[in-house]
Amino acid sequence: MANTAEEWQVARRRKCANRRSKPLQVTSASLSCNEALDISKTINRIRDTVSELRRDDFWPDWKGQLLVTSEALSNLPEKGDIEEQLETARADRCQQLQCVCYGLGPFSSCVSARCQLAMLLLLLEAVQIPPKECCIYDPIFSSSEKDVLRELGLTVLAQNEEGKRLVTRPTLFYLMHCGKALYNNLLWKNWSAESLFLMVLIGNSFSGMRERTIEREFNRDYSYISKSVNMSEERQLPCPPHLIDVFSDTAVISFPSDRLNGLPQSTWAESPEPDYKNCPNLEIILKDAQS
User: Fold this and answer.
1) What is the mean pLDDT of each run of 10 residues along the chain (291 residues)?
2) Model pTM?
């Protein structure tokens, strides 16, 4: 990777308390950083954080909400409910739930990111997803951080997908405080009834995104999130005051069959790929920017 002075803005709101005032500035040099870590010590810190979260009063509520949603995901509709759109989804009934995590952040140096990683491990345990069935990626991970993740059993992706991953089986997406473009790309790639039904997202509330964004810009630049507000179901997750920088504005988002059922075919007819040409401060690291 070239060692240039280019800077890329990444959404890291609430990732670290000392960076809440502005997005994290990541240079291409920092992207290739391979700072040595004590892997064993780092893993012990993560496991200690898992134990702390497990004992916290809010964890049973998170676990319960996720279990309800994941069970609904595994119980696909009977024939007659969005018949044609969900034909492929029925074939995936017996496939195991998998997980994808994007944009976790530098967990070796940021306490908030480490808490979010610990919560990911708790959630995988709760819904019985083997760690190897969880794919994880952030372009700012150092090589040492990737080694830590592999030691935890997670599957580290080799390439920046920019969120453009097509779902073919029931999938939990863990997108804590990621930029809107990442959510929008994910929705675009799966803009069909059969794919959306197979998805559960844990991340920022779509309704909250809409409230915090100028309506004209939201509908123009993030049209797939805008359209999804009314066809998705959000369950707000509790956030204790001492973890407000870590888990605030977090919801479980799913796409129930009764919301998808009856939508006109025109809903899915035109789905152009987002280009974000009107977004000067795009909250995502593009793969072209890494080369």
Assistant:
1) 35 41 35 67 97 96 89 58 48 70 96 97 95 97 97 97 95 95 97 94 95 93 95 94 94 92 88 90 79 57
2) 0.83
